[in-house]
UniProtKB/TrEMBL annotation:
Superkingdom assignment: Bacteria
Single annotated GO MF: FAD binding
Protein name: UDP-N-acetylenolpyruvoylglucosamine reductase
Keyword annotations of the record: Cell cycle, Cell division, Cell shape, Cell wall biogenesis/degradation, Cytoplasm, FAD, Flavoprotein, NADP, Oxidoreductase, Peptidoglycan synthesis
Active site, renumbered: 189, 266, 370
SUPFAM superfamilies: FAD-binding/transporter-associated domain-like, Uridine diphospho-N-Acetylenolpyruvylglucosamine reductase, MurB, C-terminal domain
Length: 374
């Protein structure tokens, strides 16, 4: 366990903002987390607390982070940042709480992954084992625990699609509990860990149900075409490793590498709007264009339409828009970047406001940030 006062968080937020926290605590096991909780019974993890416990005061508020890949620190954090360094990848059903008769057959493998494992390390491991599941989510920055909180998604797959169980430390009872995906209230980049149960549970590990039989998900955008091309070019067969390689090259062509240009991936969610709002967007888009101007969209059924925020932002002429050290990424306008590495939180917030206000004034749609503001 490590406890550091006045820690620089530049390496702990993928925006690369130069912010700090009053205290940083890293634990390596559930037992250490329990120990921390006992020292701090007033409610470790509950955002409004952070009591002195046995005299080792953890300044409040308390914030659990993964790799800070979906966070925007709007200023220095006055409280304590907790980070899980629980790292293991373990294949085998028993630890995932599977009982006889519940397994999905011999072509599935259950794998338990510690919350502190880098998400992409898990994706690489799965591909190397020839197991299908997370390959479309390759290259997403962040850690496994946060992936289960955020229900990360890309290229037609969401983490919830192959999560079997989320194991958590309950900061109220001090006990370890396990939730099935149906109990986690998963939605588009949503879960109870971000909403109704925010601050109560700390994810300690996640159990995934992976498939050893072929199970490619290639329907999103140009993924199938890119996979077909890779099959032809390499002469290899269709494996999770091949799909992973294709996904990584698609991502690299569109998204900034956080090791080079700071960002938090998509800054906004894609808005899901009633059909009437979509019709309004379509009629505004037609102004000055031909009648067959198409608004890209995805019909969710149930009367709601998802419109790509990237398209709305591009229509406002903001692709590549720059204000000081912060900018709208030129290749994917859903991403706000720390262009020079010197951006302040205020500069990122100013670009956020510019994008949000521009889309609202042109289309009447208020974009919701995906990135959590701290
Ligand atoms: N588009 C434009 N202009 C652009 C880029 C995209 O108009 O410059 C439009 C196109 O119509 C395109 C559509 O936006 O077809 C969708 O673009 P893309 O496939 O790049 O996906 P996205 O909806 O912008 C989402 C996720 C990404 C994920 C990709 C791929 C959200 C908020 N973002 O972006 O996730 O990688 O799909 O599946 O849902 C993240 O969450 O940090 C993230 C990067």
């Amino acid at each position: 366990m490590t406890i550091v006062r006045n820690k620089d968080l530049t390496a702990w937020n993928t925006f690369g903002l130069k912010v700090s926290c009053a205290c940083f605590v890293e634990y390596g096991s559930v037992a250490e987390l329990e120990e921390l909780w006992k020292r701090n019974r007033d409610g470790l993890g509950l955002p409004e607390t952070g009591g002195a416990g046995d005299g080792t005061a953890f300044p409040s508020p308390i914030l659990h982070i993964g790799r800070g890949s979906n966070l925007l620190f709007t200023k220095d954090f006055p409280g304590t940042v907790f980070h899980s360094d629980i790292k293991f990848i373990e294949a085998g059903g028993e630890s995932c709480g599977i009982t006889a008769g519940e397994t999905a057959g011999d072509r599935r493998t259950d794998v338990e992954v510690g919350a502190g494992v880098l998400w992409d390390d898990f994706c690489r491991w799965s591909a190397e084992q020839g197991l299908w599941g997370p390959e479309n989510l390759s290259g997403i920055p962040g850690e496994t625990g946060a992936a289960a909180v955020q229900n990360i998604g890309a290229y037609g797959v969401e983490a919830k699609d192959f999560i079997r169980m989320v194991k958590c430390f309950d900061c109220i009872t001090g006990k370890v509990v396990a939730f099935r995906p149906s109990e986690c209230r998963y939605g588009y980049r949503e879960s109870m860990f971000k909403t109704s149960a925010k601050g109560r549970y700390v994810v300690t590990s996640v159990c995934f149900s992976l498939s050893s039989g072929p199970n490619p998900k290639l329907e999103y955008g140009n993924v199938r075409a890119a996979v077909d091309k890779a099959l032809e070019d390499t002469g290899k067969s269709l494996t999770p490793a091949l799909v992973r390689d294709v996904i990584l090259s698609v991502r690299n062509s569109k998204l900034p590498d956080p090791a080079v240009i700071g960002s938090a991936g998509s800054f906004f969610k894609n808005p899901v709007v009633p059909r009437s709002d979509y019709e309004r967007v379509a009629s505004i888009a037609r102004i000055g264009h031909s009648d067959d101007c198409q608004v890209p969209h995805f019909d969710t059924g149930s009367g709601f339409i998802k419109i790509p925020a990237a398209w709305l932002i591009e229509q406002c002429g903001l692709k590549g828009y720059r204000d000081g050290n912060a900018a709208v990424y030129e290749r994917q306008p859903l991403v706000i970047v720390n262009l020079t590495g010197e951006a302040s939180p205020e500069e990122i917030l100013a670009v956020e406001k510019k994008v949000s206000d521009s889309v609202y004034s042109k289309f009447g749609i208020r974009l919701q940030p995906e990135v959590e503001h701290i």
